Structures are given as structure tokens and as C-alpha cells.
Amino acid sequence: MIYSYELEKQLLAGLIKDPNSLVEISNFISTSDFYSESTSLNSTIFRIIEQAINASDEIDEIIIAQRVNEIGLSFEDNVNPSDYIKSLALRKVPEGNILKTAKELKKYSIRREIYNSSQTIAKRMKAISAESSYQDIIQAADTIYNSKINLYEMGSDVPLNIYDEMESIIEERGNNPVTEFGMLGPHQKLNEIYGSLLRPGNITVVVARSGVGKTQFCMDYSTKVSMQYDVPVLHFDNGEMSKEELTMRQCAALSGVSMHLLESGKWRKAGADVVKKVRDVWPKIKDLKFYYYNVGGMDVDSMVSTLKRFYYSKVGRGNKMVFSFDYIKTSSERMNNKSEWQIVGEMVDKFKKCVQKEILSDGEPIIPMITSVQSNRYGITNNRNAESIVDDESIVSLSDRITQFCSHMFILRSKTADEIELEGERFGSHKLINVKSRHLGSDIAGAVEPVRINDSLRKNSINLDFNNFNITERGDLRDVANMLNGDHELDTEGVRHEVPDFDQF
User: How far from 23 is each of 30, 53, 192, 240, 481, CA to CA, in Å?
Assistant: First the structure.
């Protein structure tokens, strides 16, 4: 079996000499970390020390021996507890060795638990019914495996004084400046104002009405980030689009060839230029990593298990990826007497927990999430003037947990006729309006200072052009104001990209 009595003895010896040192290891060491197939003496000694410290009682080797004898347990080889504890107290323990020893002991415990979990999985697989579905089989293994494996990231549940390491953190960052936090997206203005929308452990939410383009925006954004940083994307689709449809959309975006020609297969007869555009895509996608998974009808626990399984098996612990989910909603078959807002809230809670506390690297989050949500019927309508459009979080459907737990939230909407008339087609077809931002970029003024348009003050927004499933940035509302005031003239292509777009690959 997988254990080390020597490490157990060394740890207990250190605790007997200095019981108060238990505080250094109490957040990750417990009685279950002591191997006790034939004897529980070591775990009993640990429990007695732990109970005494928690109760603020005095404790030493004599008191420990007395309490062990009072329990009246019999131990392996008729060991005399008093003699055993005395031998531990006489051991030499290097100063400051407690934490190191505890971590080494924890490794044995982890290996033992994973081994035992594998045995449990093997038994479960033998016993599972032949009529079980594919998802039931996978879920049965995931339930056992993930309940163990994700417990062992060496984080801490102990409250930490944020000032303890402030000097070293700030000085180190000064010695090694960073140009970006997380992964920057393909839109320069958006990056400058709000920084990275894909910071590890963060959730970015795009709110829109049906058919506006929230799926297109999220896929375009995550795909271009994947290309720029060479990281995989895991895309969950809620059953509204097939893999084939998504494939066609991506090919249309990459090639510039219309969806009609691609879906009908007529692209081969549309001329040499079209054929070349399509076939020029193949070298571009050779090394791209965009993984699609249809989660329609799945409960949130199964979704989270699938996400974890993909990350650990396909990406690898400690490596980066982007998680894209289209989109947060529920369906009637998963209601189970819960209201719709309760289901959505539960989904948000569990995904937040997964990306912030469960998939970790060195105790820190490593993957970001971008998702979308349907706006409610009181949000954007086609018959409103630009001045009366509701561009705030009140249009968010269902659970307020979406707003509460996300790091960034944006409203995506088509421009009104008034806006198009005012701005002209050069500033694109859509607006992206921020309604919540936990982080800001270098252009703070762009986020907080209102923009004057036609004698009215408006919140800044990003102008986007949606064209054949590709999205380009067309500046922000300040650019529109400057143009109208004659301060400067933009080129016909709008604002330059900070990171490459599809055409550069």
C-alpha cells in the first residue's frame, strides 16, 4: 500500500515538541491523511493534539499519552502508547520542518486516495447496468474521480492578510512589468477601455435579443483569441446549432464566402476566386483547436464534469484554455419543479465555482469563461429612438446572479435607424455597451466619461460591423463624436486591430 510511517512519525514528533505549529498545516492535513489499515495510533495522536489546540488546552507528551490510554484502543503488535509517544518526543526535528514534512505526507495521502478511487471506479463499471446511457456511465466515473482529484490543489481556506506580501508583490511586478492581464481580444478599443475580457477565473457575459448576434460575437472573439495565443477553446452549445452549422459559420468568417454557397455546396461552381478563398482556409485551420460539445438537455453537474474532464485529459493541468458557453438558459425537461431563475442561478453558481475554485494551477484560477444570455422582453425593441434605448442591466433575463457573479457584462444590439442615419455605415451595424466592468484598461476615461452627441450625453460604446460571420471594430462613440465635430477623420476600415484578424493567418 502507499504510505510512509516514517513521515507520519516525523510530523507527530514535530507537533509534540510544538503543538502550536499545527496552525501551519491545519488547512490541508487531517486524520484521514494518516494510513491506518492495521493501526490508528498515529491518527489518534494527531486528533488529540488537534482537539487540544482547538480548545486552547495545554498539551504535552504526558497528556497525549494519558488521553490515548483513556480511549482504550488496542494497537498493532500490542504497542505501548506511552512508550511510543515518548520515543516520538525524543526524535530530532529540524526547526521549520513541519510544513515540509506535512506536504510530503500529503503526497502519499493523495496517491492513496486516487488509487482507492480508481478501484471504486473499476467496481462501479463492473456493476453498472448494460442499459445505462453513455452519459450515465461517464457521470458515474466523473462523480467518483472529480470528488477526489479537485480537492488536492494546494490552495488555502485560511484568511490571509493582504498586506503580508504587498511589498514583495508590487516590487516584483515593478521589476517585471506586464503588458496584459489575461488574454486580449481582437478589438483594439475594447482592449484599451476594458482590458482583457478573458482573465483567468473571470466570466464575461454578452446580453442580447434573439438573432442579434451574441453567438457570433462570442465565437468570433474566442476563436481569434485562440488563434492569437495558440490555446484551445471548448465551446458548449445549448442544442440550438449543430456542429455542421458552426463549421459553416467559421468557414464563412475565415474565407469571406457566403453561407449560402458553403451550405449548398455550390462554392465549387462559383468561380476560381471563390474556390481559392475556401481552400486557402485549410492551411489556416491546420493547427487551430476549437472543440465543440452539444450540451442540450444536460444538467449543470454533467456540464461541469464534462468541462473538467476535457481540461484535465485534453488540455492538461496548468495549461491555458478558453471556455465558451452559448448560452445560459434552461429547458423544460430540466426544471424539476424549480423556477427558471433558480435553474439559471444554479448554473451560474456552479460554473463560477468551477473556473474560480476547482480548475486551478498552483492554487490560482487558470481558465476564463465567455458566455451569453437572452435579454428580456422589456429590453431592446425595434420601434424605439436611439435616445430611449434601454442600455442597462435591467434587460438581463432571469437570475440577478448572472449580473452579480460576472466580471464583465455587455449589451450587444443592432443599431437603430436613427443611429445609422447619424453615424453612417462607416461605424458599423452593431453596438457593444458595457453595463458592468470589474476591470478597466489603460483608457479609463473611455469607460467613465460621457460622450456628447447632438447635445446629449451618452455612455461610451464600441461600434462593430457584422459581416458574413466575421466581426470588425469600427471605433467607439467618441470617434463618432469627433467625426461629427470635424476633429478628425477615420479611414474606411475603422480602427486598427491590436491583434491579428483572420485575414493575417
Answer: 12, 9, 44, 52, 60
pLDDT digits (tens, 9 = 90+) for 241-268: 888 888 898 899 889 999 999 999 999 9
pLDDT tens track for 302-313: 888 889 888 988
Percent of the chain clearing pLDDT 70 (strictly above): 85
Spatial separation of the C-alpha atoms in residues 366 and 311, rounded to whole Å: 11
Listed in sequence order, the residues at least 6 apart from 146 whose beta carbon sits closer than 8 Å to its beta carbon are 305, 308, 309
pLDDT digits (tens, 9 = 90+) for 156-203: 455 678 788 888 888 888 898 877 789 999 999 999 999 999 999 999
pTM metric for this prediction: 0.71
Distances in Å between the Cα of 184 and the Cα atoms of 1, 188, 481 are 48, 9, 26
Backbone angles phi, psi at 280, to 5 degrees: -70, -15
Q: CATH 1.10.860.10 residue ranges in the chain? A: 5-149
Which own/partner contact pairs does 76-80 have at CB distance under 8 Å and 24+ positions apart?
Answer: 76/38, 76/39, 76/41, 79/39, 79/41
Tell me if the domain spanning 5-149 has CATH number 3.40.50.2020: no
Indicate where the chain has its CATH 3.40.50.300 domain(s). 188-504
pLDDT of residue 505: 43
Q: Which CATH number fits domain 188-504: 3.40.640.10, 3.40.980.10, 3.30.70.240, 3.40.50.300?
A: 3.40.50.300
